[in-house]
């Protein structure tokens, strides 16, 4: 064992620490300042001279400026400065084929970019022209490349982008045949990789052309050519296939596509389309399951608590304020709104059919929604249930359903109270309407519909100034509340503040360009301001929107008549008569027009129609007989007067004309009619004397009241009643009987 042990020699001469202070004096930096040779080398090129003997490079690797055959004493010139300045660069030959190809390729790329930009700006025609120009130049580029280089050097990416952009622009301009031909060129070229997915675009074009069988064929071909790793693309194609099956009525195939999507990657659109497909086939249980699947689709958005500051840290508050309304937050809101729209629409669709009654169906949907992430939609569904009761004309059930929300949170309570106020207003129960309008406003002071309804109830009571204040407050809370803006215009008309009313209606016209009600109100305000030319101009715009509205046409005729333009007045009165031949005022004007122009025989048909509309009014039949008499047809006039006398034996005017005609013709009945006429005139005198004595006994005040009532009764407004209530319900057409009263209304949908 000891044979491997080596002991250190015990000698006193060896020092263990000897040699540590010994070093080469060359490395003594402390004495460099006193080293004459070093200082000379630093100041001059003395240190760079080659050593005596062989010239050698400074490093092991031969550097620029050195050669093996360098002479002793040659100057160190690694940059070759001793050779003089470098020769000038060779001039660029712009006429060379390579340079021409590069310039042409650059131009093609620029044209493709300009085409895409024009498409993005909405100038589809310019985008197509640029795409065509790029295609022409790209073909020239290919021919030039083939002449200079081998075919392998052709820029396939540029060719692909040019063709793809051209096909896209053709499709955007609805030139589907050209787009399909261009896509075929790309798809059939085996040199283009991944061109098969463009068959999706071809399928989309066939779908637009309603060639559903070919659309499905190309979608399936694209699906076969897209690898399974592109899961999202495959899901979108499957969704297109399902939608196409729905359009063809093949609901079972559509169900298979959407069921596959919901099992692989559930999304809102596929879930909603699945419900539609089950609704089409009438499968109640599957509708319920599909609705539950739709409810379970994850939204993948942050909770609202993220945007609430947990503390008073100013830096955190600034960050939250910055992201509270950024693009990502807006996208989250849009996604949530879309989800709520799909769920609400699906619930309204299936509720009436999944159970024995729509009320039970709504209750099932409400329970499912309450157990999901969309719990706040349950109240909106309840309000929609009330609206469904309204559509079924079950007013009491609608009111009962809405009254259940009186103890809910403020937002829902305000929405329900707004609708209750609206319902009672329609029933002319203004006290109840005002009560619920107050409840709605107190629950949510910033609810523009509630404020508008409150203004309506005040308007109905005749307090126009206060109504205007409520409408103004509604506009301050929501500047896009068109109902409040319209109603404040009506209020200003009632207050005779015509300039302000006109300003309101012109603002509303800028928002609702084709609203017939707004156009009429502007024309009416100009008429009240005694500006018939402007009134006519706006009525012309009105009939361009509703060309068959008889009231607007008759109003135009009235304005032209007041201006003395009888021919234009006749044109519009006649058009009004064509669309609504029962307007007595129009019939009377047309008959009088033909009498004034000495065409009495043409006036007969209008007065005959008036006598059919008002058979108890003797004046129309007298006008018919008068027309026969004026046109010289005395026998027909005599027969007509006799017929009138049989129906109205106490009519003095008829007997007078009978006496005159019989006298002119020389008939024996003249004495009989004269006797009857004298008796009637005597009875008339006695009646007038009695009325006069009665008036003398009753006093002058009563006489004045009766005279006033008589004057009102004889006045006929050519536009019908001018009662203008504030807006209550939006209407999609203008009734001919109350055109001037039409107003837009507050929306019945929940807030």
From TrEMBL:
Repeat region (TPR), residues: 196-229, 235-268, 448-481, 482-515, 516-549, 550-583, 584-617
Stretch list, region Disordered: 1-28, 75-98, 688-751
Biased composition (Basic and acidic residues): 724-735
UniProt keyword annotations, A-Z: TPR repeat
Domain of life: Eukaryota
Ranges of compositional bias, category Acidic residues: 736-751
Coiled coil, from the record: none
UniProt key word Phosphoprotein: no
InterPro entries xrefs: TPR-like_helical_dom_sf (IPR011990), TPR_rpt (IPR019734)
Protein's name in the database: Intraflagellar transport protein 88 homolog isoform X4
